[in-house]
Amino acid sequence: MRQSAKAGTAMGMRTTANTSKRCPKTMRAIALLLALACASSICLSACVSNGPGTAASSSQTASVDQPNSTEQEPVLRDVGIIENTDYDSFYLDIAIDDFNALGFAYGDSVDIVLSNGFTAENIPYYSGYFAPYGDLQLCAYQGMSYIIFCSNCGHLWSVSNVTSDDTATVTLHERGTYRTLQDTMGKSSSSAREDYASDAAFANFRALKGGSLKLNLFYRSASPYNNYYNRAPYVDALMREAGINFVLDLADSAEKTDGYIAKDDFNSPYFLELYNSGRVASLNLYPNFKEDAYRASLIAGLRQLMQNDGPYLINCLEGRDRTGFVSALIESLAGASYDEIKTDYMISYANNYGITEESSPESYQAVCDVRLSEILCSIAALEDGSDLENVDYQAAAKRYLLDGGMSEAEVDQLIDLICS
Fold first, then answer.
1. 112: helix, coil or strand?
2. Can you list the alpha helix ranges (DSSP code H) found in 67-198?
3. What is the DSSP letter of 361?
4. Backbone φ, ψ for residue 101 (5° rounding)
5. H or E, element range at 206
6. Is 19:9 a contact under the CB 8 Å cutoff?
7. In what order do the strands lie in the sheet with 218-221?
8. What residues are paired with 138 via a beta bridge?
9. Is 263 exposed, middle or buried (0-12, 13-18, 19+ CB in 10 A)?
10. DSSP 260-317
């Protein structure tokens, strides 16, 4: 039986049923989207592994068609596949440099056919995890040795029913289909403090605002302990200054946090004090906020938060995607408007990438139309492309928590805690 998964968006592969919900405004915006998710995140610590490593490679020998001119399109035939058991995806058994040498380029769209009959058509080839959550993509992630075929923070190995005996064939679908998106999303933020206007901008640290949310009760930031971007000591100092009493850490488990604390570059004594006193909830959230498991883990963390006094800090690795979702949920619960939620969300793009409404209006609007829309549609249980400016976000946030298993009394308790 031939399984087919066809892409219909400019961001990545979705099933036809999902892509039919996209409005023209969103489709136009997608091509300009600036989302740098993850080198952290989730695609960050939750979406990255070290590649096949010492895992046994498939015994199949790939056949490649070396292009001799611009007329011949690149093809990779019958390459072995290697399961990535951590993230339900798989690697193609070919080095990134060798794959690119065939003539494939970042931003191209490709077709992939597995030997078991599973097909994916018109999916993007990116240099990072740029597709929307749940969309298929071929990825040459920084620091990896092998090409990754995955559903971005979703599931692929299990749903495609492949085995290690199967092979994959990759052909070019179209040159440059996703190149505009690749060129913008492929940018990286600086890890040097001198490139930022302030410690707060470098640490992506700020207080949440909106609706009747109590001032200086909730803060958001990059990680206060994972120093991958050299920001953790700055976050730690700002935490101390703000008097943070409890941390809702979305990024890692306690075991992973212990590993970062043991590193030579760990220099976050205030965080360590909170951590050792049990005032850090380590949620280890998978980046895909569309999944039920994300909501269940988040609710467990909120219950723990409600048992502690504030001020509270919400963080992931960069303080943008997972933190952006939870911050929008808290702001929504406090009765924030669309404009208030948008203003806070977009500060992360200004801090890390210089994207503002004045400096880059098209990119700014694209992020709002796609990334922010994806967050708010998930909170409000709306279809992609819905009007988001006239939503009762407090009612939507309450329903989100109730549907996830919170009781009416718990939701009311949380609202009383956060609202003035």
1. strand
2. 96-101, 157-160, 179-185
3. H
4. -65, -20
5. strand 206-207
6. yes
7. 206-207, 218-221, 312-315, 246-249, 280-282
8. 125, 149
9. exposed
10. HHTSTT---HHHHHHHHTT-EEE----S-TTSHHHHHHHHHHHHHHHTS-S-EEEE-S
Shortest CA distance to 124 belongs to which of 183, 186, 182?
A: 182
Which of these, 274, 264, 397, lies nearest to 330 by C-alpha position?
Answer: 397
Contact yes or no for 103/74 (Cβ under 8 A): yes
pTM above the 0.85 mark?
no
Burial grade of 75 (CB within 10 A; 0-12, 13-18, 19 or more): middle
Per-residue pLDDT of the chain (420 residues; tens, 9 = 90+): 334 443 333 333 333 333 334 444 444 444 444 344 443 443 434 344 444 543 334 445 565 555 444 458 999 999 999 999 878 999 999 999 999 999 999 999 999 999 999 999 999 999 988 888 888 999 998 778 899 999 988 899 999 999 999 999 999 999 999 887 787 777 778 999 999 999 999 999 999 999 999 999 999 999 999 999 999 999 999 999 999 999 999 999 999 999 999 999 999 999 999 999 999 999 999 888 988 999 999 999 999 999 999 999 999 999 999 999 999 999 999 999 999 999 999 999 999 989 899 998 888 887 888 789 989 999 999 998 899 999 999 999 999 999 999 999 999 999 999 999
Point out which residues pair with 81 in neighbouring strands.
92
Residue 226, phi-psi category: left (phi > 0), alpha (psi -120 to 50), beta (remainder): beta
Length of the chain in terms of residues written: 420
Do 289 and 133 meet the contact criterion of CB atoms below 8 Å apart? yes
Amino acid type, 11: M
Please tell me the distance from the alpha carbon of residue 35 to that of residue 313, in angstroms, as a whole number: 23
